[in-house]
């Protein structure tokens, strides 16, 4: 076995086009570090509906140029098999380690395969790439990003021609083409022949994207809310500042330590606004400057977080809270079309849509599903993702979401009210919908599989003293949803969904309780009750899953 491992590693080394990963692998081979070699050569990174995502390093179980070249070649073969021999593929990338290299390799592979390739001019937000696919009439798009994963990771996200992320069976078709590639020597990679898109000017994709952001805001709406903004060491700053200036909002006050791209993300443990401590610098800046709102993007700026002053200090709004606020704002503006969310998001959106007599749909987790809803007008997911202009960007977009929530804050400010006041109104109108999450990050993925197996074999009958009235194993699908690895429990006035994360080594449990509220004066006690119930559900669920 050791001889076979070393032989596989040497064969990989002979083909590796990257000097850094060649040196890394050569040292492992010289040291005969079979444990580490086995970790890198025990299989291959699997291409799925999230594309590829993993730790940077040498070998087929890591993200590197050799893996990306194979992925690009598989995508090119798939597109040609679908009759897109001369189609355009647009490629974007963030500011992570190796992102630009992976983007250039992808462009070379597409060009070598006879397709046309166009690369965005510099690291830009993922929604700019999603916009560019539709704007340029491309047959596919690739974004090199690991979103809000740790610094050691990178990823490869694939979109098809309608500007949405891939879903089955396209993922399996691409994966099969990747598997069929014998070696990198079989993949032509010319040194030139692709287009680098213009960086600015009237004809540039970025200018067209910024012009499209005009469609998000209502003509003549107030633009007075003052914001603090953090880009979380990512690529959002320049695009967001340009969009805010174009809209006429006050210039956001920047969290300087996190304003510019830095692939090492030095001020945060995880570059995700939801993670503990990630927003601390933004809170500090807000205490100094007293804005109306804090806005944060994740590193590729497809997600948007908002924080507000609550009592004496600042707190993050949950994704479900922002999702409901944006929905209420769009309803008030007379939006028509379908409102959609994933099953892990708050059921409050359905109540809002029903009251407004608007179509409503639930989908599986991920914008790859939300974006495909017929007649979509607005879609959101609790993990800070919002699609507020599906005709422009058929994916979550942290820039346009930031514009819309700041417009809403401005309107409320003109009335002497806040986002929290509107949340109170929604609770009285539709019931208090309180959500929380139990998220367990693991080093050993078998722990997640064991927890899911335990819950299936020994399902709980009560959580927090509430009887479970319906248990659903979502691997079997439902009348409205295709199969997925998840469990859904319905309780009297509560709901729980358990699923493995598709992009991180996490088990994620989504909790919601709904408490009827007759008046604003009942809200404090209702929130106390909801907090206690959520804590008890979290405790009992953790025990049931063996976490």
Q: Helix and strand layout, with pairings?
A:
Layout: H1 2-15, H2 19-30, H3 34-41, E1 52-55, H4 65-81, E2 88-93, H5 99-112, E3 116-119, H6 126-136, E4 140-144, E5 153-160, H7 170-179, E6 195-196, H8 205-212, E7 227-230, H9 237-247, E8 253-254, H10 280-289, E9 293-297, E10 304-310, E11 313-316, H11 319-332, E12 338-342, H12 348-355, E13 360-363, H13 367-370, E14 376-381, E15 385-387, H14 398-414, H15 419-430, E16 432-441, H16 446-457, E17 462-463, E18 466-473, E19 487-491, E20 494-500, E21 506-515, H17 523-545
Parallel strand pairs: 2-3, 2-4, 3-6, 7-8, 7-9, 12-13, 12-14
Antiparallel strand pairs: 1-5, 4-5, 9-10, 10-11, 14-15, 16-21, 17-18, 18-19, 19-20, 20-21
Walkthrough of the structure:
This protein is an alpha/beta fold and 547 residues long. The protein has 3 domains: 40-196, Alpha-D-Glucose-1,6-Bisphosphate, subunit A, domain 3 (Alpha-D-Glucose-1,6-Bisphosphate, Chain A, domain 3); 225-428, 3-Layer(aba) Sandwich (Alpha-D-Glucose-1,6-Bisphosphate, Chain A, domain 3); 432-545, 2-Layer Sandwich (TATA-Binding Protein), CATH 3.30.310.50. It contains 17 helices and 21 strands. The chain has helices at residues 2-15, 19-30, 34-41, 65-81, 99-112, 126-136, 170-179, 205-212, 237-247, 280-289, 319-332, 348-355, 367-370, 398-414, 419-430, 446-457, 523-545, and strands spanning 52-55, 88-93, 116-119, 140-144, 153-160, 195-196, 227-230, 253-254, 293-297, 304-310, 313-316, 338-342, 360-363, 376-381, 385-387, 432-441, 462-463, 466-473, 487-491, 494-500, 506-515. The strands form 4 sheets. It has a 6-stranded mixed sheet, sandwiched between helices. A 6-stranded antiparallel sheet has the order 16-21-20-19-18-17. The two termini are 35 Å apart.
């Amino acid at each position: 076995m050791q001889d076979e491992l070393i032989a596989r590693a040497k064969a990989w080394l002979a083909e590796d086009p990257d000097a850094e990963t060649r040196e890394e692998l050569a040292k492992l081979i010289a040291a005969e570090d079979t444990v580490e070699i086995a970790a890198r050569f025990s299989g291959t990174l699997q291409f799925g509906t999230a594309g590829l995502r993993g730790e940077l390093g040498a070998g087929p179980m890591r993200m590197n140029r050799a893996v990306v070249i194979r992925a690009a070649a598989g995508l090119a073969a798939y597109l040609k098999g679908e009759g897109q021999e001369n189609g355009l593929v647009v490629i974007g990338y963030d500011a992570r380690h190796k992102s630009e290299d992976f983007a250039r390799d992808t462009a070379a592979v597409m060009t070598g395969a006879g397709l046309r390739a166009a690369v965005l001019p510099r690291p830009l937000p993922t929604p700019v790439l999603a916009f560019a696919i539709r704007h340029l009439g491309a047959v596919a798009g690739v974004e090199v990003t690991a979103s809000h994963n740790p610094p050691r990771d990178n990823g490869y996200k694939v979109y098809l021609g309608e500007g949405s992320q891939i879903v089955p069976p396209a993922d399996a078709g691409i994966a099969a083409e990747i598997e069929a590639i014998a070696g990198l020597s079989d993949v032509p990679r010319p040194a030139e022949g692709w287009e680098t898109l213009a960086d600015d000017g009237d004809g540039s994709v970025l200018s067209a994207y910024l012009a499209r952001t005009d469609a998000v805001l209502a003509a003549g709406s107030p633009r007075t809310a003052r914001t603090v903004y953090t880009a979380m060491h990512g690529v959002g700053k320049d695009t967001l500042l340009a969009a805010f200036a174009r809209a006429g909002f006050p210039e956001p006050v920047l969290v300087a330590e996190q304003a510019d791209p830095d692939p090492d993300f030095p001020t945060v443990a995880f570059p995700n606004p939801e993670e503990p401590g990630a927003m601390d610098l933004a809170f500090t800046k807000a205490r100094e400057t007293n804005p109306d709102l804090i806005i944060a993007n994740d590193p590729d700026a497809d997600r948007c977080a908002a924080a507000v002053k609550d009592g004496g200090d600042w707190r993050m709004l949950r994704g479900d809270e922002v999702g409901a606020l944006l929905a209420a704002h769009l309803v008030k503006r007379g939006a028509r079309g379908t409102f959609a969310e994933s099953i892990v998001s708050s059921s409050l959106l359905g109540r809002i849509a029903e009251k407004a007599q608007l179509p409503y749909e639930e989908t599986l987790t991920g914008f790859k599903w939300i974006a495909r809803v017929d007649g979509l007008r607005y879609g959101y997911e609790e993990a800070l993702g919002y699609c507020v202009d599906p005709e422009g960007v058929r994916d979550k977009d942290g820039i346009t979401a930031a514009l819309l929530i700041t417009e809403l804050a401005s309107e409320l400010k003109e009335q002497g009210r806040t986002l929290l006041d509107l949340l109170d109104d929604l609770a009285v109108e539709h019931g208090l919908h309180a959500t929380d999450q139990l998220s367990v990050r693991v080093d050993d993925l078998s722990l997640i599989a064991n927890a899911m197996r335990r819950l299936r074999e020994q399902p709980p009958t009560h959580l927090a003293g509430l009887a479970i009235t319906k248990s659903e194993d979502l691997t079997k699908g439902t009348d409205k949803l295709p199969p997925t690895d998840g469990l859904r429990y319905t309780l009297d006035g509560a709901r729980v969904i358990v699923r493995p994360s598709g992009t991180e080594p996490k088990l994620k449990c989504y909790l919601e309780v709904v408490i009827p509220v007759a008046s604003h004066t009942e809200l404090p006690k209702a929130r106390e009750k909801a907090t206690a119930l959520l804590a008890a559900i979290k405790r009992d669920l953790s025990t049931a899953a063996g976490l």
